[in-house]
Each structure stands twice: as structure tokens, then as C-alpha cells.
Amino acid sequence: MSEILYALADGVATITLNRPDKLNALTPQMLTDFFAAVAQAGADPEARVIVITGAGRGFSAGLDLAIIGGGGSGDVNPFPAAAPQWGDDIGPALSPHYSGGWPVLITCRKPTIAAINGPAFGWGFILALHCDIRFAATSALFNATFARIGVPGEKGSAWLLTRHIGQARAMDLLYTARRFDGAEAKALGLVNEVFADDALLPHVQDYARTIATFSAPRSLAAMKAQVWTALDADYTTAFAAADHEQHLATATDDFREAFTSYREKRTPRYTGR
Predict the structure, then answer these.
(1) Average pLDDT over every residue of 204-226
(2) Which domain, by its residues, includes 242?
């Protein structure tokens, strides 16, 4: 059974973490396949929007710590083939397996939407933070577990969380590593909206299809770059970049199609060119 499912329909690429018996806890192979799926959607002109969710009753419980093994006891579960085994040193040795790939969620030029359908803990929480937009189910639970397992805010999570919800709120969640639900996540500004469990994915799919249908792909790509870059750019730089992108956009087929379809009162037929 594939632990990463990929489906493409109506311009929406849906990537599903598919290890429901483990609340979609992440393994090295899952991460490799997940990042590859994001890259696949990013390179496919038919995929306009990327939706990420989890199978079963969870989004992702985070890194599967059982894979690392027993630490000081030396009782570890090795990775296949030539991959290393770990004992006490589970820090730097993990880097080749876990550090790569994460930036693809931000550098991919397609909008990414997390449909958080249950627990999003640890690295599952980080995965959601890397998405552009987040919607949650009423059953969603979150926590930044890092302080309670003796590690810092991993994989850029402190950087992302601070920019999503502000310094004081981010520090609260990071320092306490407490659990909080979808309602609090919305109040914090961490998720855009909360829906009943059975309504979450239909809403997200409809939302994504609307973007895929009515928003020009090149505009989406440019705006995604603008927003993520703007987190650290000054106003003058951001303004100049927007002017540059606008100049480029007016020469595209999609720019002309936007006005043609409006005049003809029909759905636009964007090509990404």
C-alpha cells in the first residue's frame, strides 16, 4: 500500500498521507515520496493548486519516533540498505534523511492548502506551517512538541510560526508545547477556518477548484513568491518587485485571456503562458 497518495482532478493535485493506522506518522520513505509528489505537482501544468491532507482520523502525528529506536539502549530499528543506524547520537546522523525537501512547499510555484483533519503534531505541525493556507476540522489538534523532547523549533518552525501568528503567541506555543484545538488555532490566526469533520475536505476541494479555475497560474506563482519574499523584504523592494512582475504579466496570454473571458462572460481558459 502506498503511503503517499496522489490524485489530480479539475486542476487540483491532492496529496494524501496514507498511513492511517499510525496517524500518518512520517517515515523517511514517506517524506521522500511526499516531497517528490509536491515537486511532481509543481512541474505539472495541469496541476494549478496543491491540497495536502491525511487519511483516516489524523493529519500527521509527526515523525515516527519508533523508527529511531531505543537510544542509549542500542536497540534501534535500522533503515533499509546502506542507511545508517542510530544509538545515542540521533541528531546530525538524521540530517541526510530528514533535512532535504522541506523548502519545496514554499519554493513550489503553486498554492498549497493544508486540510488538517485531525492531530497535527511535531513534524505534522511543521508540514502544515509550510503550506500557504490552512483549514482545519473540528477534530484537529495541534502542538509544537519540540521542547518536550529536547530539541529546538525544527525545520524552520520557529521562523514560520512567528511570521504566521506573531512573536508572543509563537513563543507561548513553542515554550509550553501544549496542545490546542482548531478553534484556538483560528483565534490565533494559524488556520483560516474550521469546519465540521465531514465538511472539511469538500470545502477545501471546492475552494481549490475555484482558484484553479478562475485564477491565472502565472499570477498565482508571482503572488506566492511576492508574499513569501515580503516576509523579510522592505516596502521599496517589494513595490519594485511587484512593478516588475506586473510588466511581465501584461505580455502573457493569460493576461489577454482574463479580459477576453470577462468580455465574453465565460470561464477563463488559462494556459499558464
Answers:
(1) 93
(2) 216-263
How many angstroms separate the Cα of 176 from the Cα of each of 122, 145, 179, 180?
Answer: 13, 9, 9, 11
**pLDDT per residue as tens digits for the range 91-122:** 444 444 445 688 889 888 899 999 999 999 99
Rounded mean pLDDT of 199-215? 97
Burial of 43 (0-12, 13-18, 19+ CB in 10 A): exposed
Does 247 reside within a domain? yes
Q: List all residues 6 or more positions away from 127 whose beta carbon is below 8 Å from its beta carbon.
A: 52, 59, 60, 105, 114, 120
Match 493569460 to its residue by C-alpha cell: 254
Element (H, E) at 170: helix 167-176
CB 10: neighbour CB atoms within 10 A?
13
Same domain, 159 and 182: yes
What's the CA gap between 69 and 269, in Å, rounded?
52
- Predicted local distance difference test score (pLDDT) of residue 124: 95
Q: Which amino acid is at 54?
A: G
